[in-house]
Automatic annotation (TrEMBL):
<dbReference type="GO" id="GO:0051213">
    <property type="term" value="F:dioxygenase activity"/>
</dbReference>
<feature type="domain" description="TauD/TfdA-like">
    <location>
        <begin position="19"/>
        <end position="354"/>
    </location>
</feature>
<keyword id="KW-0560">Oxidoreductase</keyword>
<keyword id="KW-0223">Dioxygenase</keyword>
<comment type="similarity">
    <text>Belongs to the TfdA dioxygenase family.</text>
</comment>
<dbReference type="InterPro" id="IPR051178">
    <property type="entry name" value="TfdA_dioxygenase"/>
</dbReference>
<dbReference type="GO" id="GO:0046872">
    <property type="term" value="F:metal ion binding"/>
</dbReference>
<feature type="region of interest" description="Disordered">
    <location>
        <begin position="363"/>
        <end position="382"/>
    </location>
</feature>
<keyword id="KW-0408">Iron</keyword>
<dbReference type="Pfam" id="PF02668">
    <property type="entry name" value="TauD"/>
</dbReference>
<protein>
    <recommendedName>
        <fullName>TauD/TfdA-like domain-containing protein</fullName>
    </recommendedName>
</protein>
<keyword id="KW-0479">Metal-binding</keyword>
<dbReference type="InterPro" id="IPR042098">
    <property type="entry name" value="TauD-like_sf"/>
</dbReference>
<dbReference type="InterPro" id="IPR003819">
    <property type="entry name" value="TauD/TfdA-like"/>
</dbReference>
């Protein structure tokens, strides 16, 4: 346990069968009035614990939430006024709270007569199980059987750099019995999760699962993402686990409209935490169009462009951690603010039947002032 001025930081407690190794709660802070000197301390706690749940922020002003997320990356140039054309299409359609930068309203159901200026707002969930290759039946879903929606980290993967941190303010939380999340991939795996939770796994813990030979390979290798990657995959289908693409469906490059070749992103496969030095295998596999594989700095990389081979490589690593014992459904309650390190975690939403009631959260992120750094330098172009 540590302390931030008058704050208290407690690592999350695991049950006997749980193996995830990250997360903490913070109590005793009012984010509407956080001293500027404490911002760096909070940033370091997020780098260290990867996801931090700041308790009892029921009265958090969305404008203060935007100020907070920007101050955690003080060099960012994101003023929250752009068109967000390069972001995931879900974000471009979400409602921004007036005067609060890139703080957006997400959720499901009726949010009341006045939700920060939105009158009698009812949200229809953008994400649904039609993304999966074989969705659960309506009857199964209504009985409480659900899926992980889409495992990802928050990044446009074109143009702007990934946000360092993402934060969710939980405004309304659904209530009811635990849901059963199914893998539906032949493994028979399931897990119980309370409704309304965001689930996480650690890409640092995943990296630690690799053999020495595999670590050497991914330390020296990199990926190239498609231009306008979320448009590229808009007709694709997901594995039923929410992780990875099944089959084809990618748009031909000539249908991606004009794009700036200098905005296409190449990132190392392994991202190094600037505070702790930890390494994370952080690859958004559904958007990768090329792998560059090598085992040393002076080795000529093997370039992989076959989508099936790319998927097999990435999932061959990531599926190792996609097990119930490594997945944390962050125990956030109504009024809490959740902040996570977007450079070391994957996360996903989980849908629930409407009878559980409305859900509302305010999500904020800002374009990163600097992109990820790997263990070794990678070429920026061929």
């Amino acid at each position: 346990m540590g302390s931030l001025t008058s704050w208290t930081v407690n690592p999350l407690e695991r049950k006997s069968k749980e193996k995830w190794n990250f997360g903490a709660t913070v109590t005793g802070v009012d984010l509407n009035n956080i001293p500027s000197d404490d911002i760096k301390i909070l940033r370091d706690e997020v780098w260290r614990h990867k996801v931090v749940i700041i308790k009892d922020q029921h009265k958090l002003d969305p404008k203060k939430q935007w100020d907070l997320i920007r101050s955690l990356d003080p060099e960012t140039t994101d003023e929250g006024k752009g068109s967000n054309d390069h972001r995931n299409g879900l974000l471009t359609r979400a409602r921004c709270i007036p005067g609060a930068g890139n703080v957006r309203v997400f959720g499901k159901g009726y949010l009341g007569e006045d939700h920060h200026g939105y009158k009698n707002l009812t949200l229809d969930r953008f994400l649904n199980h039609q993304w999966h290759i074989s969705p659960p039946s309506k009857e199964a879903f209504e009985s409480g059987l659900t899926r992980f929606q889409r495992w990802h980290f928050d990044a446009p993967l074109y143009g702007d750099e990934p946000t360092w941190f993402t934060c969710l303010h939980i405004v309304k939380q659904p209530r009811g019995p635990d849901l059963t999340v199914e893998w539906a991939d032949g493994s028979g795996l399931t897990m119980k999760i309370p409704p309304g939770r965001t689930a996480f796994f650690s890409s640092v813990q995943l990296y630690d699962m690799l053999s020495l030979e595999e670590k050497n390979l991914v330390d020296h290798s990199w990926v190239e993402y498609a231009p306008h990657p979320f448009k590229w995959i808009q007709h694709c289908k997901s594995q039923n686990t929410g992780l990875g693409i099944v089959g084809g469906g990618h748009l031909p490059e000539e249908e991606l409209e004009n794009y700036d070749p200098t905005a296409v992103k190449r990132y190392p496969m392994v991202w190094v935490n600037s505070l702790t030095g930890e390494r994370a295998f952080q690859v958004h596999g559904i958007c990768v169009r090329k792998l560059y594989l090598r085992n040393s700095l002076d080795e000529q990389p093997r370039i992989v462009e076959d989508i099936t081979e790319i998927q097999d490589f990435v999932l061959g690593i990531q599926n190792r951690i996609l097990k119930p014992e490594y997945i944390l459904p962050a125990p956030a309650e109504e009024g809490d603010l959740v902040i996570w390190d977007n450079y070391s975690l994957f996360h996903t939403a989980i849908d629930y039947p409407e009878r559980y009631g409305p859900k509302a959260f305010h999500k904020a992120d800002s374009g990163g002032s600097a992109g990820p750094k790997g263990p070794v330098q990678i070429p920026m172009s061929e």
